[in-house]
Amino acid sequence: MAHAESAAESADVAVERFQADRAIAERLRHRRTMVFGALFVLALAASIQVGEVRPDRFVEGIGGLFDYIDRTLPKATGGGLVADAREWYWGLGRWLLMLFDTVVIAFLATTLGAAAGFVLCFPASRNLMRGAAAVFVSRRLLEIARAVPELVYALIFVFAFGIGPLAGVLAIAIHTAGSLGKLFSEVNENADIRPIEGVRAVGGNWFQAMRYGVVPQVLPNFVSYALLRFEINVRSAAIIGFVGAGGIGQELYLVIRQFIYADISALVILIVLTVSAIDLVCERLRHGLIGRESLA
Amino acid sequence: MTDFAASRPLADPRAAYPEVFASPPLQRLRTPAAVAAFAAALGFALWWTGFFDLARIVQGVSKLGWLLQFMFPPAHNGWLGEFAWGLAETLAMAFLGTLLAAVVALPVGFLAAKNVMPNWLLHFGLRRTLDGIRGIDTLIWALIFVNVVGLGPFAGILAIAVGDVGVLSKLFAEAIENVDRRQVEGVRATGAGRVQTMRFGMLPQVLPVMLSNTLYFFESNTRSATILGVVGAGGIGQQLSDRIRVNNWDEVMFIVLMILATVYAIDLVSRNLRVRIIGRQDYRA
Description:
The complex is a heterodimer. By secondary structure, chain A is mainly alpha-helical. Chain A is built from 11 helices and no strands. Chain A has 2 domains: 2-53; 89-295, Orthogonal Bundle (MetI-like fold), CATH 1.10.3720. The radius of gyration of chain A is 29 Å and the shape is flat. Chain A starts with a helix and ends with a helix. Chain B is an all-alpha fold. Chain B has 13 helices and no strands. Chain B has helices at 4-7, 13-16, 18-21, 25-48, 54-71, 80-111, 120-135, 138-149, 153-177, 181-189, 194-228, 236-245, 249-278. Chains A and B meet through α1, α2, α4, α6 and α7 of A and α4, α5, α6, α7 and α8 of B.
């Protein structure tokens, strides 16, 4: 009897303790929610103040956008579909040449950037490099290259090299080197160490260990990342012309600034079509590469 | 099976099955042909974009060296207040733009999810519209909104919001399509209506993913908001392009360093919040 009583008592104590703990936990959670909520409201109020947001401007902005889009759409002149389309895309030949420029910029920037990233990714991988100094230096180099926005590099290079695609290629290439170098070194750090040890064991030096021990395992992944970057770079190359660094962005900037409405929609549609076409091709290539790799 | 090789010894397999050992000439040519094509394309691209114009390259590089000399030491020359205000504008643009995009993307994401909206025509139409919005870069939207609402950070906010609605809606819709059906059915079994099913069956499952995605976009929008000012849409980019235009390179370097510090701090805070919301996870976007 005494046994059962003390058991019930201890159960009561346990329940009481549990409820006390839960009350504390709930209060903590409640307080945390309040703190985050207050921070959020504060940030919201400050942002609305700094961002010059007023409700009437929203109405103006959204209404204005639809009005703007409506104005860019081509008008039927009654001359038939073909005549209207020809009128709309009156500069097609010139624009296609600019699109070609854009793709060339993206291709060259991706290739040069991937090459630089390839050179830097081996010293930046902790498992492949003995010296901490080399790892530190190459990692900081890659960080600087990818932390600064492409458009900022483009502004500087346009000043140094003059207006034209050269500045755009260099700007995108530097940014690409930074981001691809980082991704490459992450691939390296997941590489199998045994082939490297094998090459070392038969007397290979560091470069040979990289060439015959690492590169064969990581190359498909490298190429896949480079293709992904190419897709991104086509988008960048399309807008880098806003600051005079070549490509179709230069023309787009001009027609938007001068309110040539029909040309805006024509150019935007051309850009979206090109970007999606390149995305589609690259996606197929990438799946081919990675698919083949997972079978092995 | 084991004595297969012994029972049929081949005196000279190479002679018996030549086609097995000799790769066809076309296949042997494939690699060198691909390499040659790539090299030719590379050479053409270098020539096309002006890399073989040695005089221009030399002049550009020497000009760059000259710029670097002027960039150090970085200095604000008394403009620190303006720069800080520009950065505050940038952060406000990223914050409000992302928030606006997320608020709009929440209902649109539900509408674009196959398990909420089974009508394939509507689903298809909405998805393609979102793809179209996504295909247009934020900087293009910024330029357009500068025309619509005038210069200033408000144009940047709208540009970020519109540009991100496409991507965020798609991500939200994908998260909703991957919800666990059992909870949804459990809620429906208690007699809940459509909206209640979404609220109590789906939303609790997808909310952490949505929050974490939104935070990630806030990070990336902080980066893009730093350059929107180049086309007049507010933020620090305005100051940056002005300083470049008037050749104040020490101030340019100062602004770049300020941007890097801010982006780094935002990344750190946002990553910590994301880990709190959904636990450690690898993002590669």
